[in-house]
Structures are given as structure tokens and as C-alpha cells.
Design a protein that fits this description.
By secondary structure, the protein is mostly beta strands. It is built from four helices and twelve strands; from the N terminus they run ααββββββααββββββ. It has one domain: Lipoprotein localisation LolA/LolB/LppX (outer membrane lipoprotein receptor (LolB), chain A).
Length: 219
């Protein structure tokens, strides 16, 4: 696996110390249930994002920011403003990864074999969570001036990650942060800001045409 692939293989993901005492799992279940109900009515969602990536195997850390949108059932895009031009896009058929900040001469294209859930962060972490995860309520944090619940999710079945942590608004049940922890120690944290639901998203936001001269590696 190349350095580019290691840095982009997971879509999902600056941590704040926990500001609240750990609570019972039942509290986390109720918070997740509220979030699941909220997002059941979401067709499209856009937000500004900040991403922090730690790759211990390479002794590297990366940060970036940009705009993220998803449109159910199967479209997703992360377009980076820093580093400018980097992107991850699911167009309904394929997932594209193009990181000109790493290598402007090649792009990666893989089929969406895993279905819509692989690119829908909310479906992955908030839909039917009790069936998919062991849930642990880690108390509350303050994030962006709001109180959020911090909940750890450990997959019950073999997964591409060993654990995930989600931060959900106490008052509005919105998902504000996701952290994904991989078996090799890689940790990706995505923090969402300025969240907008059910707004129109231009179709072009979910499409990608490789620039002339870019070699497309298909898997």
C-alpha cells in the first residue's frame, strides 16, 4: 500500500479531552437513537470540515480542511481547500481519490462494492448502532461552544476499523465529530462545522474528471 493509499483509505477521521464523567451505555444508546431519528429525514447534508490524520507507522501527521457533502443514497464528496485540489468523491458508481498535494500525476478509482453505507458516515455510525456496535458512553465534551456527547463504538463483527468515537450535540442531536481508529494505529478525526441539511447540492460537486495527463489506477 502506498503512502497515498494509507493517507486516504478510510473516509471517516484535534481531539478534546473529555469534560464529563463516564456514564452508562444506556445514556449513549438514547443519544444515538435521537441522532438516528434526526438523520432518517436527511436527504442531503453539507458541512465545512477539518481533518486530522495520524499515521504512526510512517511517523507522520497530516491536517486539512474543506467542504464535505453527501446525497443519499450513494453520493459523497470531500473537496479540500487545504491542501487545495485534494478530493475524495463517490459518484454513485466509483470512489475516486485524487491528491495532487501528494502526486498530481495519478488518481485512484475503485468500484463502490460496499454499497451506500461505505460513503454515508451517518448511516455507518448512526443507523441501527446497537446491532453493529458495543456502545460506551464517555460523557460530555465542549466542542465549538456547545455541549456534545462523546460515545465510543466498537464493532461487533470484523471491520476495517477497531473503534470509532462520535460526538453528538446534546441539544440538536447533530453529528459534529467522528474519530476512526484503525488496527495499525492510524487515527483519522473529522470535525464538522456549519452543518446544513436538505439543501440543494450541484450535481457537479459529486463528479470528477481527471485532468489531462493524469494516470488513473483502477482497483
Amino acid at each position: 500500500m502506498t503512502r497515498v493509499e494509507v493517507a486516504t483509505v478510510v473516509l471517516s477521521l484535534a481531539l478534546l479531552p473529555s469534560g464529563g464523567r463516564a456514564q452508562s451505555a444506556s445514556g449513549g444508546v438514547e443519544v444515538l437513537r435521537r441522532a438516528e431519528t434526526l438523520y432518517a429525514g436527511v436527504r442531503t447534508l453539507c458541512a465545512d470540515f477539518v481533518q486530522e490524520l495520524e499515521v504512526p507507522l510512517l511517523r507522520e501527521s497530516h491536517s486539512g480542511r474543506g467542504r464535505l457533502c453527501q446525497s443519499r443514497p450513494d453520493r459523497f464528496a470531500m473537496r479540500f481547500s487545504e491542501p487545495a485540489g485534494d478530493l475524495v468523491i463517490a459518484d454513485g458508481t466509483s470512489v475516486w481519490r485524487y491528491l495532487p498535494s501528494q502526486d498530481p500525476r495519478q488518481a485512484f478509482r475503485v468500484p463502490m462494492e460496499g454499497g451506500a453505507g461505505t460513503v454515508d458516515l451517518h448511516r455507518q455510525f448512526l443507523q441501527d448502532p446497537q446491532t453493529k456496535y458495543v456502545i460506551a458512553d464517555e460523557g460530555t465534551d465542549t466542542l465549538g461552544g456547545r455541549t456534545v456527547h462523546r460515545i465510543r463504538l466498537t464493532p461487533r463483527a470484523p471491520s476495517s476499523f477497531v473503534a470509532a468515537v462520535v460526538w453528538i450535540g446534546s441539544g440538536d442531536a447533530l453529528l459534529y465529530r467522528v474519530r476512526v481508529e484503525e488496527e495499525n494505529g492510524t487515527v483519522r478525526t473529522i470535525t464538522l462545522q456549519e452543518i446544513e441539511a436538505n439543501r440543494s447540492v450541484p450535481d457537479g460537486f459529486f463528479s470528477f474528471q481527471p485532468p489531462a495527463g493524469v494516470h488513473v489506477i483502477q482497483r
